[in-house]
Specification:
The chain is of the alpha+beta class. It is built from two helices and eight strands; from the N terminus they run ββββαββββα. Helices cover 19% and strands 40% of the residues.
């Protein structure tokens, strides 16, 4: 598996280029794409820890699928990709994706809605497969 789609009202698309896999099958880079009506943004994002913090973040959302107080947040190592989730019967995931290392810097922000339960469980299983050693 080289890609995962998460969401039904807007979507995250996580993709690993086969050529960027390490010798153990893991990757230090993800191409993160967000799709909303009228917005598509994509960025190659780095993490030195085989993306275990991102997987742990989604596992925590799945584990607490019935709800939680406050926000649950994730930020990539270089700060160019961030998530913040709230639960109100649905899981509302607010994202920030930015490319600030260019002359024409840009940032995209928005919200993706996930159903708790099966949709989160599927997301975690697919992320685990995408990010695991092969």
């Amino acid at each position: 598996m080289d890609e995962v789609f998460i969401g039904h009202q807007g979507a995250f698309h996580f993709h690993v280029e086969q050529s960027e896999r390490n010798s153990d099958g893991t990757s230090d880079y993800l191409i993160v794409t967000v799709d909303l009506e009228g917005l598509r943004a994509s960025k190659r994002v780095y993490d030195y820890d085989k993306w275990s913090p991102l997987l742990s973040y989604f596992e925590e959302l799945e584990h607490n699928w019935r709800g939680w107080d406050g926000d649950k947040s994730f930020k990539s190592l270089e700060g160019d990709f961030g998530l913040s989730a709230k639960h109100d019967g649905h899981v509302r995931v607010f994202f920030e994706l930015e490319d600030f290392d260019r002359p024409n810097a840009w940032a995209a922000k928005g919200e993706i809605i996930l159903d708790p339960g099966e949709e989160l469980t599927t997301a975690v299983e697919e992320l685990r497969a995408l990010l695991s050693a092969r």
